[in-house]
Amino acid sequence: MLKLIGFLIILGLATADKCSDCLAQGKHWCVTVNACGFTPCVTTITKALNCPELPDKAHAYDDSFMRNKVLITHSAAYNMDPQKCFTSKMPSMKVSKTVNVNCDRYGPKAMCFSFTAIDTVQKVIAMTFRGTEGAAQLSEEILDFFHGKKAFFDSGSVFEYFYDAFLFQWNGGLQQDLRKLKYQYPDYEIWVTGHSMGGAIASIAASYIVKIGIFTPDKIKLVTLGQPRTGDYAFATWHDATFPYSFRIVHHRDIAAHIPPMEGQDELFHHRTEVWYNNNMTIGQPYQLCAEADGLYCSNRNLDYSGEDHVWYFGINFVEWGQAGCP
């Protein structure tokens, strides 16, 4: 009898050898033993977006590319003259348009900064968004969280403050310039990047230009640093099904990656793919490609958070470095 019971248990586990199939049966996926419905289980998955999945090899993460190319675009956004960073570190990239507009619909004036750039050597268009600057803007972001979310086309909802901030910049000059660059260089890929609040805006921007048909997802590389939660579960689901190349880089205990908090089951949810550096991110340090989207894994395992880790990426305070012109 015991042998029969054991056989039936094994058979039951074998009927759903994939996490998504398992959840579709109304069961949980046990990460501890990689099996469906196994109990007791130390770590379980109950949401499909947290089923283990990594980017395909054609869209693999490259630490060197992030460190030597993408980081420069992030840093440049912290200089009102982004060309200073490019002239210093990536001279083939030329700034096309800068936008500096008030992006707060409800509170006092709060400026958002972004730029577009073109690189005819690397055959790349860049669009980058600066992060939160100053306590006043941060306070407004937090207060505006209570205004709720806005529908994002037919693909879930996104945090209202971030969506508004994007649209203010989009209508403030980004749209016209990006369309011009796309017309001039129709075959170029586009790097969409941003740090902190700028990371959330970059995520919305990349999604928006796909929705309105300016770029197809295969031409977009979306990379963010310290990105806060941006949209709900439905938005994250659409995003993951749409973008083959999307990375959220998180440094160690960066607090921004964990705000705004999840509320309820599906209120706010990160999309993939988190890349977690549980170290000081200097050259040669390891990183973890997180197979789950937003569960109790990778950086979400932290019990304490750091504001300092929010501005130190790849071994430097890249915000101050950018402000100094990337010397």
UniProtKB/TrEMBL annotation:
Keywords, ordered alphabetically: Signal
Pfam families assigned to the protein according to its UniProt record, in alphabetical order: Lipase_3
All residue ranges annotated as the Fungal lipase-type domain in the record: 127-262
Residues making up the signal peptide according to the UniProt record: 1-16
GO biological process, one term: lipid metabolic process
Keyword Signal among UniProt keywords: yes
Domain of life, per lineage: Eukaryota
Record-linked InterPro entries: AB_hydrolase_fold (IPR029058), Fungal_lipase-type (IPR002921)
The protein, known as: Fungal lipase-type domain-containing protein
Taxonomic path: Eukaryota, Metazoa, Ecdysozoa, Nematoda, Chromadorea
